[in-house]
UniProtKB/TrEMBL annotation:
Its main location: endoplasmic reticulum. This is Derlin. The lineage of its organism: Eukaryota, Fungi, Dikarya, Ascomycota, Saccharomycotina. The keyword Coiled coil does not apply. It is found in: Endoplasmic reticulum membrane. Belongs to the derlin family.
Length: 347
């Protein structure tokens, strides 16, 4: 355990320590596991601690917890070590008004605040998970109890996008690019828990026998029976392919397939990966692709020349997407810092 925690950056270390502490308290029966999980109607009423505790609750001390801590520390640590507020997150009007000395001062502040900035990003990710998990519960009646597992998988996805060509050694059996690791992990998890009714219990959501999980199990049993009939229909297809029996068999098999897909997309494990990959892609795309790449030119000279050219010909351009992303991604204390830096130059 000490080896896992050694040399971790502050936010990652705090997350791991809180997870270990929670596991110890559960093992000592100081707190009940069920009281720490995310149940939306309780979390948003009189048990507000459920908005925080699901991110550091992974059950009691066990080998699974050690593996989870390794996964948390490796993925979150890599992102935190590379994380830094960039000039792309600062409004262009303010950035272009700064001189060289001001930019050097701003750069020193950004480097000094790296851990604080990442903690703000960590809170943003957690808040988005809470909102989506709440929507899934009220819209789909599906409980995602341990939000920390979603956050961990989200970091795995983001880390794979940040270093896509890094080679991953899979238990010494074969190697593949890091960009495929989240999907390989998801496929292995689904393969290990092939029966839909067992998926949620094995991965930490709906493990306490909720109505959503129970209903899913019942639906699978019914589908299994229908599946047998569907296979029989396909078998008969060879005897009457051009007749009405063959056509009915095709429609019957298609109906069973659609029904099974419907059951699949109503299961917690599927929504777990949809949330992890969907939110991970949203935050990566917003920060790295849209804001830092598509809507920003890091060449100061070219950017100022373009601005002067537009002004010369009376063209007013307002990049709405960039402004929204700046408001979303720039830590709020930088508005105060930028204001003070500008005031300092006037003196």
């Amino acid at each position: 355990m000490d080896a896992i925690l050694a040399n971790l950056p502050p936010v990652t270390k705090g997350w791991c320590i809180s997870t270990i502490t929670t596991a110890i308290l559960i093992a000592l029966h100081k707190v009940k596991h069920i009281n720490l999980l995310f149940i939306p109607h309780k979390a948003w009423s009189n048990q507000n601690w459920r908005l925080v505790t699901p991110f550091c609750t992974f059950g009691e001390l066990s080998f699974d917890l050690v593996f989870t801590l390794w996964l948390m520390s490796s993925s979150c640590c890599k992102i935190e070590n590379q994380f830094q507020t960039r000039y792309a997150q600062i409004p262009s009007s303010i950035l272009d008004s700064l001189n060289g000395r001001q930019k050097r001062l701003l750069n020193k502040i950004i480097i000094r605040n790296r851990s604080l900035d990442f903690f703000y990003f960590f809170l943003q990710l957690s808040s988005s998970i809470i909102l989506v998990a709440t929507w899934v519960f009220y819209k789909k009646q599906i409980l995602i109890l341990e939000l920390g597992a979603v956050l961990c998988q989200l970091f795995v996805y983001m880390e794979s996008k940040m270093s896509p060509h890094e080679q991953v050694n899979f238990f010494g059996l074969f190697q593949f690019s890091n960009m495929y690791y989240p999907f390989v992990s998801a496929l292995i998890t689904i393969a290990l828990h092939a029966r839909i009714s067992d998926m949620g219990n094995a991965t930490g959501f709906a493990r306490n026998g909720t109505a959503a999980g129970g209903g899913g199990g019942g639906g699978v049993g019914a589908n299994g029976a229908n599946g047998a009939g569907g296979e029989g229909g396909i078998g008969g297809l060879g005897y009457g392919l051009i007749g009405s029996t063959g056509i009915l068999s095709v429609f019957r098999y298609s109906a069973v397939l659609v029904e099974r897909l419907g059951q699949l997309f109503n299961h917690p494990l599927v929504w777990f990966y949809l949330m992890s990959f969907g939110l991970g892609h949203f935050w990566w795309c917003s920060r790295e692709f849209l804001l830092n790449g598509l809507h920003y030119n890091d060449n100061d000279k070219a950017r100022k020349m373009r601005k002067q050219t537009l002004k010369k010909y009376g063209v007013q351009k307002f990049d709405l997407v960039r402004e929204i992303l700046v408001i979303l991604l720039l830590p709020p204390w930088y508005w105060v810092i930028l204001s003070k830096i500008k005031q300092d130059t006037r003196q």
